[in-house]
Each structure stands twice: as C-alpha cells, then as structure tokens.
Design brief:
The protein is α+β, with helices and mostly antiparallel strands and 242 residues long. It is 46% helix and 22% strand. It is built from nine helices and nine strands. The strands form two sheets. Strands 1, 2, 3, 4, 5, 6 and 7 form a seven-stranded mixed β-sheet that branches. A two-stranded antiparallel ribbon has the order 8-9. Helix 7 packs across helix 8 and helix 8 crosses helix 9.
Length: 242
C-alpha cells in the first residue's frame, strides 16, 4: 500500500460516523425545541433557532468527538439590551436541565452552556445578530458580564476558499494533522492548527498529495517554532530542545 493510499484509508476512520451525525442532529433539534417553547426564553428567529459553528460545521472534527458548538439566536431587546448575558445563560441552563433530568451533566461555563452526552458534548451559546451585518453577532464575553462582537461564519468561508484552492484536500489534511496532534499529545488548539495550516499553504502553491503536504507542514511549522524559540498557542507552549 502506498503512503498516499494509507492516508486515504486513515481518513475513512477519522470523521464522525453516520449514526453519530444522526444523534447530533436529533440532540440539536431537541435543544432548539426546548428553548423556543420555553415561556421565559424569547428567540429572534423561532423558525431557525440556532446554527452550528466550530469544527463540526467546518467538517474538520475527528473522532472521538470533543464538542459541538451551537449558537442560539436570542431576542436582543428582551435578553441583551442593557442586560448581562449571564442572565440568559442561566435561564437556558434551567430550561435544559428540566428536559434532561437524569444522567446528563449541564452547567454554565461562560460563555456557553456545557451539556455532556454519551460520546459528545454540546456547547450552547446565546447570541444576537446584527440586522445590517450578517457576519457580525454578539455573544457573552469573559465571565458573561457583557456582550462582545463575534464573527462565527468567517472561519467557515476562509476554510471553504482554502479547500477549493487546494484540490479539495485542505480540510482532509487538517483532519490528518489533528489526528497527529491528538495521538502525540502535542497540545495545539484545534482552531490554531487550522490557522497554521492556512499559513503554511499561503507559502505553497497547492496541496497535491498528503505525504508531501504533511512534510511541508512539519517543515514550515518547525522552522517558525525554531525562529521563535517558544511559540505560544492558547494555553500551550511548544518548546524546541536539542
């Protein structure tokens, strides 16, 4: 078996399975229904209560599944205008606890509500959209004391463009690199790894095959780390010794 074929075989085992996707969709629909039918929660778009973001939406998520990011569109004047986001976070958490009464861990972990299911976790974020800017939203800031601006759709568009420019191999390469990152306990944050991959292939014309692409990624990233000695990614510091 060639190296390229081995990568293709590995990719078949990385993404969520069809049963997992089915369960995730059912959970999302349940969360939507709980929140839109609650008497003290007012959604901005009851017919379209939420949207997915993060690795699951971008199709870069690998097994085992960590979390699913779900943004719920709440009514601005009722829940956000002059009000702290912690209030709606607590209200949403109470509503969800009433639905999942036994065996499901639900807690407010600003800026989201964490819901732990068997095999995956949902992170539910209340958000407010801007009428004059479909890229811009408000979400809870640190400590849920205030609302801050967020642009959750921008990474998806950026990744889609990169995937198109790289023979539709960019997303799949990210999955391979995430598996390497997880298996070797490197500690790179998922989104930072995606950004690093974009930086690498800004330097190279396109991705032609996975073995060469992985080599190119390792070459450029290790070179950047060496130049910076200690390169910080979120809470992770990669130290080069030798």
């Amino acid at each position: 078996m060639t190296a390229s074929k081995s990568f293709e075989t590995m990719l078949l085992r990385l993404g969520p399975t069809i049963p997992q996707k089915t369960n995730i969709q059912r959970t999302r629909e349940t969360i939507d229904n709980v929140l839109k039918n609650h008497p003290r929660i007012f959604l901005a778009k009851p017919q379209q209560p939420s949207f997915l973001t993060g690795s699951y939406k971008r199709n870069t998520l690998i097994r085992p599944i960590d979390d699913i990011d779900l943004y719920v569109l709440v009514h601005f004047s009722i829940h956000a205008d002059g009000k702290k986001p912690i209030l709606i976070l607590r209200e949403m958490a109470r509503a969800l606890r009433n639905r999942y009464k036994r065996g499901t861990k639900i807690r407010v972990d600003s800026p989201c509500i964490m819901i732990k299911f068997s095999g995956y976790r949902f992170e539910v974020v209340p958000c407010v959209f801007y009428v004059d800017d479909d890229e811009r939203y408000m979400v809870p800031g640190p400590g849920a004391r205030e609302w801050i601006d967020c642009f959750p759709h921008v990474p998806q568009k950026w990744l889609t463009d990169n995937n198109y420019q790289n023979n539709k191999k960019f997303v799949r390469l990210i999955k391979i690199l995430k598996q390497w990152n997880r298996h070797n306990k490197v500690g790179l944050k998922s989104f930072h790894l995606e950004l690093l991959t974009g930086m690498v292939f800004d330097q190279i014309s396109e991705i032609n095959n996975y073995p060469q692409a992985v080599y190119d990624w390792m070459y450029y990233v290790s070179d950047w780390v060496l130049m910076n000695d200690n390169y910080n990614y979120g809470s992770t510091t990669i130290k080069i010794t030798g």
